[in-house]
Amino acid sequence: MSHILVVDDEPSICWSFDRALREEGHSVATAASAEAAFAAAEDAAPDLVLLDVRLPGMDGLRALSEFQSRFHAAPVIVMTAFGDLDTAVRAIQCGAFEYLTKPFDLDAAVVIIRRALANAPVTPTPSSDEAPPARRLVGRSPLMQAVFRKIALVSTHDVPVLISGESGTGKELVAQAIHDHSGRVTGPFIPICVPAMPSSLIESELFGHRGGAFTGARDNRVGLLTQADGGSAFFDEIGEVTLATQVKLLRVLETRSVLPVGSNEARAANFRLIAATNRRLDQMVAAGSFREDLFHRLNVFHIELPPLRDRREDIPLLAEHFLRQLGPGGRQFSPAMLAELLSRPWHGNVRELRNAIEHAAIVGRGATLEPDALPSPASGRSTEHGDAPSIGAAVSRWINERIEQADSTEELAGLYDQFLKEAEPTLFTRALQLADGNRQEASRLLGMHRQTLRERLRKYDLEDSTGNPNADT
To answer: Which residues pair with 304 in a beta bridge?
Structure first.
């Protein structure tokens, strides 16, 4: 078995570990100070060190660095009765395998010792001239091979591209790859997310402005579309762009120029438009919430990214890729870890997987990462079409309540109409509130034609509920 060195000036701690670890089959040496521990370690090199922070003479954190330099293959578990954030951070950053706060459960500590012995700390490998791979598309599945083929086909053709897929599937990476393999690679790649911009500043952000054009505009500003001249503009969440902005964007695409706010002089904006969405733009066109002419202009070439659940064979490859990005090589996943990764639904797709691997790399202290280092699975399901994760459960509860209240199935007749009468008024009222009473904007939020919304408002006697004199605009 292993040789373990316990360094603590409390005899009871040393005695407890000595007894418990010998029952496990290990040999044990104890020391009451760091200086005595170094001498004991020279006589018999430890396979693991249990090290108290507060010691007479040299303190435990200084001793930790010394143990790391002398016996780098031996994991060190730090113990303290005076735990605080600074001590914990320093201990972990100095290379401690684990950090225990006294009093601790002895059996739980033994479990940690077993794990530490089974997973020796990673010894940093010499750095090579090759930098860690940047964020890039990864996958060997047939679905991703089809995506790679489409990227290769369209990259050299200077046409707009529409990328669709659920949130977290990597739409911006596809856009970046198209740009990187195009004739515009020497030009800029400008990501643009209009929904994230303040509504009052959208035109200024996109088109720029002349100094003095409005309150607060002291200097001239170059808009994002002008910055994209000669390169590519990536419009994320294009389905969330308002109809008014859609009209102006279409004009920019037709004229290849922009007119800054407050200026009479147009500026060049010869860029390639790459747009992404997690919504069905064709359905939005049918509902009147997305311009048909802009849709056809965007949809010259369409790439649809598959959700991670449809290409599970790529999960181990992606996980290894993310782990390599986090630091020196040498760390790996246990078979149980890979099985857990393959079993999860990954509602957040590749983004959720990357976050989970980053979490595991922080929590897992050894060379082999186990499932207990993963965060809890994300709840909910895909929200590709904007559905709230809890809507199904809420409807199910509503139906169950009606069934419990009904004396017979005849009383349940017309259940669908009952549901609409309760759900639609709330939905329409809330949409109008979000749109500040503007029915045009409310119809866009709802994904329905304005005339249809007007008819529904009339049906539920909600026509005058907005209090906005511009409700029909």
So the answer is: 164
